[in-house]
Design goal:
16% strand; alpha/beta; Rossmann fold; binds nicotinamide-adenine-dinucleotide; oxidoreductase; SDR_fam
Length: 238
């Protein structure tokens, strides 16, 4: 299927998990996919520009590199993210709070800043920011991650309104639990309980989230603006 034919997509964190599956889906649907990540993807078909989403200079250089090579950026998936150290707030590790907020919330906004400036010049674009089920419902011992992901969701709605008549669409995706390397960074007692919370009875595969991102990124989704799209196997329906 050529749903994304001729499009140029930038995916932060595009070298692993959901981001890599999204990059591969974009290529399968006719787009160029650039992973803006700290590390390259194992798949050489995915272009790579070394990028740190917490660093403004790095993001600006990434946009310049992509535009020089491909002439434009049609799609941004601001997906780079990390997990947190789970703890009740009375035992909060403030350094970890700052790190997670910096990558998962500020990193999304900063990436938007530089890529959307390019989209404004073009008069078009589709921005998809990565939220999470934990930005929608409460999870035990979650602080920075929940705050960051809820922040991404509402920030995205604000920008969707701001840019609604500009040709640039903003949406956010809230996956349930997805089988990616990120889950391996969580303690066993957290991952053990995950499947039981999913009405569908299993974790999502990264490709299932990528399918939705590719559709929302496409021109077929032209009326999808300012949505927080739950891709969670029924979690939030409970
Ligand atoms: N896996 C899940 O269950 C799940 C559920 C909901 C939301 N999410 C979100 O989806 C996104 C992708 O997660 P994943 O599960 O695929 O994780 P992952 O660990 O497989 O991939 C994350 C990628 O982000 C990159 N990254 C981290 N810090 C970066 C930085 N400062 N600059 C650039 N790149 C950086 C990593 O190098 C990695 O390639 C994250 O935002 C995560 O919070 C994941």
């Amino acid at each position: 299927m050529d749903r994304l034919k001729g499009k140029v997509g930038v995916i932060t964190g595009g070298s692993s998990g959901i981001g890599l599956a999204t990059a591969e889906k974009f290529i399968a649907q006719g787009a160029v996919a650039v992973s803006a990540d700290l590390n390259p993807a194992a798949n050489s078909a995915v272009d790579f520009v070394k990028t740190d989403v917490t660093n403004a200079d790095s993001l600006q250089a990434m946009v310049e590199t992509v535009v020089k090579k491909y002439g434009k950026i049609d799609i941004l998936v601001a997906n780079a993210g990390v997990a947190e150290e789970k703890a009740p707030v009375a035992e909060l590790n403030v350094d970890n709070w700052n790190k997670v907020i910096n990558i998962d919330l500020t990193g999304v906004v900063l990436t938007n800043k530089f890529v959307v400036a390019q989209m404004v010049k073009q008069g078009s674009g589709s921005v998809i920011n990565m939220s999470s089920i934990l930005g929608v419902v409460g999870g035990p011992k979650s602080q920075a991650y929940s705050a960051a992901k809820a922040g991404v969701a509402n920030y995205t709605k604000s920008q969707a309104i701001t840019y609604a008549t500009s040709g640039i669409r903003f949406n956010a995706i809230a996956p349930g639990y997805v089988a990616t390397p990120l889950l391996k960074t969580l303690p066993k007692d957290v991952t053990d309980g995950m499947v039981s919370k999913m009405p569908i009875g299993r974790l999502a595969q990264p490709e299932e989230i990528a399918n939705v991102i590719a559709f929302v990124a496409s021109d077929e989704a032209s009326f999808v603006v300012g949505s927080l799209i739950n891709v969670d196997g029924g979690y939030t329906a409970q």
